[in-house]
Amino acid sequence: MRIARFDHSVNLLQAILWMYDGATNLKSIIEQKQAWYDQNQKEFWISWYNNVFNLLTADAFGITVWSRILNIPVYSNVSPAPSGAPVWGFGVYNKNFGHGNFSPTSPTIVLTLEEQRFLLRLKYFQLCSNGAIPAVNDFLNYLLSTSDIDYSGTIYVLDGLDMSITYVFTAPNFPEKLLKAIKNLDVLPRCSGVRIKYAASSKFVFGFGPYNKNFGNGNFIQTVS
Length: 225
Known about the structure:
Layout: H1 24-53, H2 60-70, E1 75-77, E2 108-110, H3 113-128, H4 133-145, E3 155-159, E4 164-169, H5 176-185, E5 195-200
Parallel strand pairs: 4-5
Antiparallel strand pairs: 1-2, 3-4
């Protein structure tokens, strides 16, 4: 999501006609009003742009505004566990007995502010995208390069050629809560009727694809002049 910068400055002195250049009292009043505009009106719009309008830097209030605009909650409900599954908690027969320092699992996913920005920017692109894989891969690279979600890998899309696409996560440390929210809210770009699959890898794949470890480094064919 690239947003053009706006110039919010206001030059009130332009309103003075040449015939009033010598009117010192009038010019003094307008200059004082100009100083007030510079300190208040300009700073207000700069703050509004950074904290609300720009999803790269939006604060908690701005995130709430975008959440309403894009109809994406900043939290996501989690389906209850199947009957008979181990319970996460502090009972003797529970899964985390003796190893935790927090309360039992909450039915909601709460994301950090940076993760909320990531989710909303992904939804914004989904609404503007036709699902073309090259464009999606370009955006994912841009999204990761301008986000701070503590993820060390990349994300890219592969076409399954069978009305399915696969989102590949090249590192295992993508935030778990964020991934759950992405899946639950269905914000990944795709064409209509196309099924989404997910693949996560703990290491790079050896090969010659642009996202593989040995791309451009092979010496299996040597040209002889």
